[in-house]
Design a protein that fits this description.
This protein is mainly β and 269 residues long. The chain has 2 domains: 10-97; 132-268, Jelly Rolls (Sandwich). It has one helix at 115-124, and strands spanning 10-13, 21-26, 43-49, 56-64, 69-70, 74-78, 93-96, 132-135, 148-151, 156-160, 165-166, 172-173, 179-190, 199-204, 207-211, 222-233, 240-246, 261-268. A hairpin with a 7-residue loop joins strand 1 (10-13) and strand 2.
């Protein structure tokens, strides 16, 4: 999410250390967050600095109008050369600032940003799609339960721009930017003993959401099916998993990369 902006806002918090910034008084010649029109729950970029400038910190956090607290949610860089909170020896001055990550920088300056800064900038303007693409790298998934829904363990990440796909433990995609995502899932199997076909199933938050077509064919053979859907995600706790419905007498999912795979990316709000 992009940081919001405030005009000439600089204040002194109640304390230093590593606690969040609780507003105390405005710096002479500047506005308080309230006077500058700070919005409850909005994200603001800040620079905190000691009087002698030996200690400083740049990051962004969320402001609360009821408590006057600006959180130190993410530290981008600091006087120690790390991304940790500086333990200020005294209450610093905290200014609401506009950072490179907050601006549209489609110019010669963009390449000078670090990879992390460029990523943050893309997220701020909604240009970060959170794209991922996974498969099983040619390895079959065996031991599945016939006539039942089975989670697909996608272990090979072809692309995972933001590390939002867990390919080790939960085998799920949990995007951290709210919006609508296009999700595609393809599965490849043989047909079941009764000529039944498998079905690709998209699960959201542990429940079946979308399922591909089903056929009852007259002869045994290979079968491939795919389901594609536009799915709203809240950007925090919502997650997507790929499942397959296995027909009677079938317990193996083909791991061929051109048959079994899943992908997704953000397509809008």
């Amino acid at each position: 999410m992009a940081s919001s902006f405030l005009d000439v806002c600089r204040f002194t918090p109640t304390a230093g250390g590593t606690t969040d910034w609780t507003y105390s008084t405005p710096v002479t010649g500047y506005q308080s967050p309230a006077a500058a029109g700070a919005v409850n729950g909005a994200i603001y970029s800040y620079r905190a600095e000691s009087a002698d400038l030996s200690q400083w910190e740049v990051g962004f956090g969320t402001y609360s109008t009821s408590t006057g607290v600006l959180t130190r949610g993410t530290v981008l860089f600091n006087s120690a050369g790390t991304t940790a909170k500086i333990s200020f020896s005294a209450a610093p001055q905290v200014a609401i600032v506009a950072l490179a990550e907050d601006l549209l920088l489609f110019n010669a300056g963009m390449p000078s940003l670090t990879t992390a800064q460029q990523k943050q900038a893309r997220q701020n303007i909604g240009a970060d799609s959170g794209v991922f693409a996974v498969d099983r790298n040619g390895v079959n998934q065996t031991g599945l339960t016939a006539a039942s829904y089975n989670k697909i363990q996608f272990t090979n990440k072809v692309k995972d721009a933001n590390s939002w796909f867990d390919g080790v433990t939960n085998f799920r995609y949990m995007p951290q930017i709210a919006g609508t995502y296009q999700i595609g899932l393809a599965v490849g199997t043989l047909t079941g003993t009764n000529g039944e076909t498998s079905q690709a199933c998209i699960y959201k938050n542990g429940s079946l959401l979308k399922v591909s077509n089903y056929l009852n064919v007259s002869s045994a053979g290979g079968w491939n099916t795919e389901v594609v859907a536009a799915i709203p995600m809240n950007g925090t706790t919502d997650y997507i998993e790929g499942f397959i419905y296995m027909p009677t007498g079938l317990t193996t999912l083909l791991g061929l990369v051109d048959r079994t795979f899943m992908y997704g990316f953000r397509i809008g709000d």
